[in-house]
Structures are given as structure tokens and as C-alpha cells.
Amino acid sequence: MDLFELLNFYVIPGIVLGSIYALGAVGITLIFAILRYAHLAHGDLATFGAFVALACVTAMGVPPLAALPIAILVTAAIAVGIDKVFYEHLRERPKIVTVMASLGIALMLRSVVQVVWGVDTQTYSRGIVRPEDYFGLRIRDRELYTVAALIVLVGGLQLFLTRSKWGKAMRAMSDNPNLALLSGIDNRKVVMLTWVIAGGLCAASGFFLGYNTEIKSMMGWHMLLPMFAAAILGGVGRVEGAVLGGLIVGIAEELSVLVIPSEYKAAMAFAILLFMLLVRPTGLLKGKVL
Amino acid sequence: MEFLGLVNYALFTAIFIAIYALLALGLNIQWGFAGLFNAGIAGFFAVGAYTSAVLTTPADDGRLGGFDLHFVLGWIGAMLAAALVAWPIGKICLRFRSDYLAIASIGVAEIIRLVIKSEEVVTNGARGISGIPRPAGDIGYTESQIAYLVIVLAVLIAAYVLVERQFNAPWGRMMRAIRDNEDAAKAMGKDVEFRRLEAFIFGAALMGLGGALFAHFNRSITPEAIDPMVATFLVWIMLILGGSGNNRGAILGAAVVWIIWSVSEIATDRLPHEYAIQAKYIRLFLIGLMLQLVLRFRPEGLLPEPLRGDLRGSRRTTKSGADHNQARSTGPEIDL
């Protein structure tokens, strides 16, 4: 196999898939670091976002990319709402209770999607898109948009976290919650901001998975494991780590079919997760271990 | 005829409740005693079901085995296999907070599903394994159902007696001590990781046994026999509603939830066809909502964990002692 074949058929799809995982993993890592629990409904929240975008496309006839901002806003609002209704009153209880509640939320979100939109596979736009040729690299427009969205959204998030007052408050809560609370940071606002960011990124992740492949009611659940693997691989609490982790998991999944049967592609994320927990639970970029 | 139908339905329901009660007991060892979050119950269930199926079916050219062993050996094999799958996962994940185990157990269930679907040599792929012998299966239908119910109940009672004994034994007290205050237990010289691993493996073995009982009841097992997420979730809601930390609660929860679940199925089956599929998902939504309501309004469940002496007021949220965020919140706490 020559280099271009490797790049075109494995590495480029891997980067695209990795960008999708990374968008979700950033939200997981923020929730893990700031709210301190594993949010198991993250995948199904991404499914929900993808279907909101689909509803916009079919109802208003807008192009898929124009539906993305709407999906991000709606999903962010839903995420805040879920937190207010279901998670907020569990905050003083052991964190694992919230993990359990989030498993229930995953089931509820998925059944809402299945009731409202059905269980059939759908797409944003019909027809085959031929990839363009860039010096031998075959890349589709939508693949470029996916990677561009990752760069723009995560770049913006990094600026927000490092430059703005509320971003710094979020980082403070992640580093040392007691000290942050003592210095007068409003916990409720930080929690809400975390959900807005995580929900919005979740919708983007689900949207781009649907944009590059198909939209299915189970697609988010199957993304949950790779997203967690990415967050832990990069180091919990590290945004840039989640991006790095997402890309590694995505590329590893695509390359894995060269050595193991393709049915086991999904097992790659699990193998990475266990390996990291075994040898370096803090992740590549020295994150937290809860 | 009508009466016989009712009897058969009641027997069918009772057998299912007993099998689910076994799963809930297994989860109670993991969650109720040790505070371990296992979200891959269906995986251990499937391992048990397939192991027993391979061990007890007559030889078949198309796949591994079968070994045509006695069903008791098949059931023991199922428990051993489930325990063997649980061991490495527990070994890796139990050093950390239970969140990591939750994620890893979802992964395990997913991998087991993949293996069952694609390893035709062992599991016969999508066709599944049929012709699994059922103990006392060659007498009349109703008689055989009664006989199987008796066997399943005997297994359940044996499991209950053993688990209840462990709960009141020093081992049970130690597990709850580790669950409620890891640091203190460590300071008393308890090997926290090893004890958690024990609880995880025992629980998984019971889940494997539940799977084996299911396979022999059905006389066949296919990848589509159970919906992993639904099965896992049903067992969780059974334990939480019944009362985690209470073995009688786990069994009561299994009965209550399974009856609600099957009555709602009867109700939705009467709907016209175009609503029937949606109704299935509405049932799932409601079962998810039920968990949220129980967690909020009755976290201790129908039968709370039995506590000796006046411990209730003095319990603190130090389930995971290392987490300062949790240690900070004080006050009477539920028995999780």
C-alpha cells in the first residue's frame, strides 16, 4: 500500500472521526473536572443535537451547516434544563448517584428521539459527494468543515477559558473547588456555563457525525466509549488533551482495521481506555484522577 | 383453557421475576454492599448464558462444543466465566472512583456483544445456540414450567441465604465500612482494592448464573435475546426501587418492576399498530423517569438497608473519602 492510499483511506477518515470524538470529549472532560462526575448521557445528548439539526433542515429547508448553530443553541438549553431538573438536587449526594441518574437520562433522551423521529436511518442531504483532489489527497468539503469547526469551537473555548473572567472561574472550580468557592465564585453560574459549553459542543459532535455518515438513534450511545477514552487519554480536565485524545482514538480506530477484523473497530477505544488506566491514569497531558 | 392460560402466564412471569431477582442480588453485592457502579450487567448475563449453552448442548459441528454436560456443571461454568471476565476489569478499574468502573463496564458489555455477534465458532453468530436442555423439560408444558420455577426458586433462595449471611457476617460489615468511609477502612488495615474486587467478582458470578438460568428456560440464546441497555437498566431500577443494600428489597424490587414492565407491555400491545412502536419507547422513557423520581424522592427504596443501632443520623457523605468535594458536604445521608 502506498502512502497516499494510507492517508486517503485511513488517516483522513481517522482525523475526521477524531475531530467528532474530540468535540464530545471536550464536554466530557469539562464536566468530569468541574462537576466531578462521568456524564453517561453525553452520547445521547449528541444524538439529540443531530436530530434537532435534522428537524431544522427538513422543516425550514436550510442547508445543514446553517442548522448547526440552531442545534447548538437548542441542545445547550436542553443540557442546562436537564441539569436544573434532574441533576441539581443530587449535588450534595455522592457523585456516583448523579452518574446513575445520567444513565437514566441517556435512556430518556434516546427514547424521546425514537418517539419523535423514529428509528430509521436518515441523512441531512441525499446523493453522493465526490471528494476533491488536493495534490493527491482526496478530501470532501464536509470533512474540511468538520475539522474547521473543531478548530474554531475549541479555539474559541480556549480563549474564553484563559482570557475571560468566567472562563477563569471555571478553571478555578476545576483546580480547587473549595478555594474557588471561598474567593466568591458563584457556583451556580459556573455549573450553568459548563452545561452550555458541553451541550453546545455535544450538538456539534452529533451533527458532524450525522453530516459525515448517517443519523441514527443509537449513534450517540456508540460514541460514548470513544469520547470517554479520548478524555481520559488526554487527561481529565485538559481541553487540549481531549482534542489530542479524540484525534488519537479516531485515527487508531480507522487504522485498527489493518490489523484486526473490522467488526472489532469499536473495541479499539476500549483497549485504549483500559491501557491508559493501567499505565498512566493521569493521561498524556497530566490531567486529574478522580 | 382460559384459566390454564392465566396459570401459564403467571408461571412465566414468576420465573422471569426469579431470574431478574438473581441479577438484582448480584448487583446488590456490587452496589449495595460495595458501592461499585456496574453498567454492564447485560454483558455478564450474556457470558453466563452462552457459557452454559456451549457446555450443556449436544455436540455440533458448526461451532465449539457442545460438550453435553449436566446442567449443574453448565451453571457453575457460567458463574466461573462471568467471574473470569469481571476479574481483569475490576483489577484495572477498582483503584479509581466508581465512575471509571461505570465507563469500563459499559465498554465490557459492548465488547461482549461484538464477540457474540462475530465469533461464529463459539456462539454460532446471529443464529444463536438452540436446543439447550431444560431440566425437567420433557414433561408436559405446564408441569415443566412448574418444575423449572421450583428449580429457579431453589437457586434464588440458596443465593439469598448465602448473600444475606455474608451481609451480616464480618465480611458484609467490612464491605459497608469500605463503601461508606474508604479512608477509615484503609486506616484499619483493610485491603480496599482486593475487597472491592471480591464484591465485583461475586456479583458478576451471580449475574452469569442468571444468564444461564435464562438460557435454559428459553432453550435457546441469540444475540437479540435481550436488549443490553434495557436489561441493565431494569436491574438497576429494580435494586434502587427495592432498596439497595437490602437483599429482600432487591427481590421485592425485581417483582414490582417486572410486573409494572409486563403490565405496561400488555397495555401497549392493545394499541393500534402505528402507535405500538412508539409506545415501546414511551415505556423506556417512563422507566428512565421512574429512576429519576426514586433517586429524588425515595433514594433508600421500598425496603431501606437494615442498620443496627442509631447509625442513621451519624452517616456522612464520605463514600469516596479521597474526594474533598464530597467530604465537605455533611448531614444525614442515604444508604448508598
TrEMBL record, chain A:
GO biological process, one term: L-isoleucine import across plasma membrane
Record's bilayer topology term: Multi-pass membrane protein
Key words, A-Z: Amino-acid transport, Cell inner membrane, Cell membrane, Membrane, Transmembrane, Transmembrane helix, Transport
Entry-linked InterPro entries: ABC_transp_permease, BCAA_transport_permease
Gene Ontology MF term list: L-isoleucine transmembrane transporter activity; L-leucine transmembrane transporter activity; L-phenylalanine transmembrane transporter activity; L-valine transmembrane transporter activity
Cell inner membrane keyword on record: yes
One Gene Ontology cellular component: plasma membrane
Subcellular location: Cell membrane
Keyword Cytoplasm carried by entry: no
Membrane-crossing residue ranges in chain numbering: 6-33, 45-62, 68-87, 96-117, 144-161, 190-212, 266-285
Top-level taxon in the UniProt lineage: Bacteria
Family under the similarity heading: Belongs to the binding-protein-dependent transport system permease family. LivHM subfamily.
Official protein name in the record: Branched-chain amino acid transport system permease protein
Organism: Roseibium marinum
Upper lineage: Bacteria, Pseudomonadati, Pseudomonadota, Alphaproteobacteria, Hyphomicrobiales
TrEMBL record, chain B:
Residue spans crossing the bilayer: 6-29, 36-57, 69-87, 146-163, 197-217, 229-261
The organism's taxonomic lineage, starting at the top: Bacteria, Pseudomonadati, Pseudomonadota, Alphaproteobacteria, Hyphomicrobiales
Matches recorded under InterPro entries: ABC_transp_permease, LivM-like
UniProt protein name: Branched-chain amino acid transport system permease protein
GO cellular component, one term: plasma membrane
Tree of life domain: Bacteria
UniProt keyword annotations, A-Z: Cell membrane, Membrane, Transmembrane, Transmembrane helix
Primary location class: membrane
Region named Disordered: 308-336
Protein location: Cell membrane
A Pfam family matched in the record: BPD_transp_2
Annotated GO MF terms: branched-chain amino acid transmembrane transporter activity
Protein's UniProt keywords contain Cell membrane: yes
Membrane topology: Multi-pass membrane protein
